[in-house]
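Subgroup meeting minutes
Present: P.N., E.W., G.H.
Scribe: E.W.

1. P.N. recapped why we're keeping a running log of single-chain structure predictions: easier to compare across weeks, and new members can see raw inputs and outputs side by side.
2. G.H. added today's entry (235 aa).
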Amino acid sequence: MMPLLDVRDLKVAYGGIHAVKGVSLQVNQGELVTLIGANGAGKSTTMKAIAGMIPAASGEIDFDGQPSPSTSHELLAKGLSLVPEGRGVFSRMSVLENLQMGAYLRDDDQIESDLDQMFNYFPRLKERITQLAGTLSGGEQQMVAVARSLMSRPKLLLLDEPSMGLSPIMGETIFEVIRDIAGKGMTILLVEQNARLALSVANRAYVMDSGLITIEGDAAVLASDPRIGEAYLGD
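Output recorded in log:
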């Protein structure tokens, strides 16, 4: 089976700093794959390169069977959507306008029903529908960011640190939705600082250290791997 996302020997440098040193990973249709590792390992840089937000120094990225476009707007049109670290909501637009922006490339008749689905996932957004996104709490902004990406009906959803800075309760709310959409067949690549939580929802996992993939395998197997427990799970 051809993977939906195929990254081969990806290298990314900032000036003289080599942040990503030759990463290869795959995400198959319908999988939830997680990328875990310590802060500064290169996870978010890898995600930004896959999403076309920063240029790769070298390597190849194929998306949906074709060489990946180089720009983020072309990738979005082809069905790849990123929920960035730090949320990135349109702060001077309302909750509803943010979600409508997620669907701006669509011209089908399912947008209203998808909006209803987002409000089922996140009832709090329904309560805040006319509120400016910049005035929401961090957790509410993360809900907006996730819902906005889902409104594009992506083939592949990239989630970069969705629980960062959130209370445990708010983080669990976000992950309930991640579990639900994964259960319905959404293909997801997840970067998450909470390795235990990430491994609990993922099918497969890659462990990144100093710009390289050091371990990969079945998420449930890695969750009980003593190397992972000692380094990332606080065991």
